From TrEMBL:
Cofactor: a divalent metal cation
UniProt organism field: Haloarcula saliterrae
EC number of the protein: 4.2.1.113
Family: Belongs to the mandelate racemase/muconate lactonizing enzyme family. MenC type 1 subfamily.
Gene: menC
Domain (Mandelate racemase/muconate lactonizing enzyme C-terminal): residue spans on this chain: 130-224
Function: Converts 2-succinyl-6-hydroxy-2,4-cyclohexadiene-1-carboxylate (SHCHC) to 2-succinylbenzoate (OSB).
Residues annotated as binding Mg(2+): 180, 206, 230
Lineage: Archaea, Methanobacteriati, Methanobacteriota, Stenosarchaea group, Halobacteria
Name of this chain's protein: o-succinylbenzoate synthase
């Protein structure tokens, strides 16, 4: 196993609940397996995964274990619940090498019978005044997106209702709208929002209540506006969330879940429970974005996913073989992730 550090500046700072992000720091992971070199990416995100020092230390321990016991021993050093980004990096490199050895794109390594040329993706619009929000959604609509996610919760519920009204007046009813509250609401606020959001055809609200309130989410779900859980998967096992009937949709971030294999397994398990999976990134480099894209491509009839995030980076680890057109992201059909490991570089 070989790791190379990188730092990718964002094209503009990104405000999150854990602070403002100006760059994404991580490690490229390379691993030789079955006669092929696989490439992975470990890019920790504050508030979601382990820290960068912990990620680096975990990969160093895994490299030592691999020398004595091979890739199985290395994987045992990388627990998904404690060092998910580190595990994602190594697991992706291993899967990339496996798919290359089998001569298939990664999504077909998950399901040999799948054929998927592209995946639908959503645009994301941040907080803003009603007119600015409507302008941003109209721009996404003009660019060919069929689905747009609005950030809500930074203002009052009534203010967010005004934003939705402005959007519908501007773009009409054909565009699918979703909302992401990032756990900002109290139960009474969520009930009010869900009641009125239904009138504006909101598909679902992502994380309406704090992450640990599974009972509250269970009480909200099942209506015309769905409940999607995201941050809750950081604090609770997915099986606990599914058993609690707390979600209509699970938002699956492979970097947070410990790798693309884990994310794919959870997506199919959610489907078995009647819960829809949506795959998103954590504002990653091209290696991790492609891994997430292949997870989504492996799930039949998946809805719009949060994968069109490459433009948030000022530069990347390699040229992106996935192209965005008409609200869909093309899926590379070459072996593995679709990248030449020799082209992946911090200086690309």
């Amino acid at each position: 196993m070989n790791t190379t550090p990188f730092s990718l500046p964002l094209s503009s700072p990104l405000a999150t609940a854990s602070g403002t992000i100006e760059e994404r720091d991580g490690l490229v992971v390379r691993y030789d397996h079955r006669g092929h070199t696989g490439v992975g990416e470990a890019t920790p995100l504050p508030g979601w995964t382990e820290s960068l020092p912990d990620c680096r230390a975990a990969l160093a321990s895994a490299a030592t274990a691999e020398i004595a016991g091979g890739h199985a021993a290395a994987m045992l050093e990388l627990a998904a619940d404690s060092v998910p980004a580190a595990r994602h990096g190594f697991a992706t490199a291993l899967l990339d090498a496996d798919a290359r050895a089998d001569g298939v794109p990664l999504y077909q390594w998950f399901d040999a019978d799948r054929r998927c040329q592209s995946v639908p993706v959503n645009a994301t619009v941040g907080d803003g005044a009603p007119a600015a929000t409507a302008d941003a959604v109209a721009e996404a609509d003009d660019a060919g997106f069929d689905c747009c996610k609005l950030k809500v919760g930074a203002r009052s519920v009534e203010d967010d209702i005004e934003r939705l009204r402005a959007v519908r007046e501007r773009v009409g009813d054909d565009l699918t709208l979703r909302a992401d509250a990032n756990g900002a609401w109290r139960p009474a606020e969520a009930e009010r929002a869900f009641e009125v959001f239904a009138d504006y055809g909101v598909d679902y609200v992502e994380q309406p209540l704090p992450a640990d309130d599974l009972d509250g989410h269970a009480a909200l779900r099942g209506g015309p506006v769905g409940v999607a859980l995201d941050e809750s998967l950081v604090h609770r096992r997915a099986d606990t969330v599914l058993s609690a009937d707390a979600a209509d949709v699970l938002i699956l971030k492979p970097m947070v879940l410990g790798g693309p294999g884990n994310a794919y397994t959870l997506a199919m398990r959610a489907r078995d429970h009647g819960v829809e999976p949506v795959v998103t990134t954590t504002i990653d480099g091209v290696v991790a974005r492609l891994a997430a894209l292949h997870v989504a491509a492996g799930v039949p009839d998946i809805g719009a996913c949060g994968l069109a995030t490459g433009d948030r980076l000022a530069h990347d680890l390699a040229p992106d073989p996935a192209t965005l057109s008409g609200g869909r992201l093309s899926v590379p059909q070459t072996d593995g992730l679709g990248l030449d490991p020799a082209e992946v570089s911090p200086d690309a």
